[in-house]
Design goal:
This protein is mainly β and 264 residues long. It has strands at 12-14, 21-24, 34-38, 43-48, 55-60, 66-71, 75-80, 88-91, 97-100, 106-110, 115-120, 130-133, 145-150, 156-161, 166-170, 176-180, 192-193, 199-203, 209-213, 227-231, 240-243, 250-253, 257-260.
Length: 264
């Protein structure tokens, strides 16, 4: 068992080189640095200082020494694992979120507004190359985008708002692909795409996991996607529902962790 008693661990991601090292954020109120953790030696290789508030999202590049972090201090930072200071800084109006696409060619930032901003990973210093205004898809015009996830196929972006609304857009044109009527979701819940990008899973406040078809076949303006499975078993709302990227397996977590496999 590995422990980080002094700082605690909140978000944690394996780096591209394998499962023996990871980047993690702190869970305390005195130090908001990120840490490069050697899991084999159980020691911190490097500290990344730049945030002055809790980190709310963390993502790593799939094959390069880059990672992204977003904090309640209203900044998204781009880091190089080999450097202690951030190599890029994107300001936001509210708490932002950020993520790489699965190929690492681009990354997206929601800067606390009603837009999804896309950057080229190799020329991020030139600014965004496109943004998608998703305000017309929001059920309440006062809400803003709080989280985003790229699909494994690269064609869709899963968007979550600060009120728990979840929908997906086309990653090339920005039009609505599907809307997911979760029926109550934790504000900081983490939904995910299945490895084939055909399904979306998300925990609900009722304690269940809803699995939706990723895209809608209807022509209505809301494009509501159907629920194909409802998984019951948690006693409290599961904040995390993640598909295994290479196996037919879904993991969910609240006060306990559950692993799900489809019925044969």
């Amino acid at each position: 068992m590995l422990q980080a008693k002094k700082y605690g661990v909140d978000h944690i991601k394996f780096v591209h080189s394998g499962t023996l090292s990871a980047v993690c954020s702190s869970r305390n109120d005195f130090d908001f640095s990120l840490r490069y953790w050697d899991l084999y030696e159980n020691k911190f290789v490097r500290y990344f200082k730049g945030h002055v508030g809790d980190v709310k999202s963390l993502d790593v590049h799939p094959y390069d020494d880059l990672f992204l972090s977003s904090s309640v201090d209203k900044t998204s930072l781009l880091w190089d694992l080999r450097k202690e200071k951030p190599v890029g800084r994107i300001p936001a109006r509210y708490t932002p979120a950020s993520a790489f696409d699965k190929q690492g060619l681009i990354f997206g930032v929601c800067a606390g507004d009603q837009k999804v901003h896309l950057f080229d990973s190799r020329s991020f210093d030139q600014g965004e190359f496109v943004y998608f205004d998703v305000s017309r898809y929001l059920v309440d015009p006062s809400h803003h985008v709080s989280k985003l996830v790229f699909s494994p196929c690269g064609k869709f972006i899963l968007v979550t708002t600060n009120a728990g609304q979840i929908f997906s857009i086309d990653s090339f044109k920005g039009y609505l692909v599907g809307s997911y009527a979760v029926g109550g979701v934790e504000q900081d819940s983490i939904p995910s795409f299945s490895p084939d990008s055909q399904f979306v899973a998300c925990g609900t406040t009722a304690g269940s996991i809803n699995v939706f078809r990723a895209s809608s076949q209807t022509e209505d303006s809301m494009k509501t996607c159907s629920v194909v499975a409802r998984l019951d078993g948690h006693s409290t709302p599961p904040r995390i529902a993640l598909f295994n990227p290479t196996r037919t397996l879904l993991a969910s977590a609240c006060t306990n962790v559950a692993l799900w496999v489809p019925r044969q």
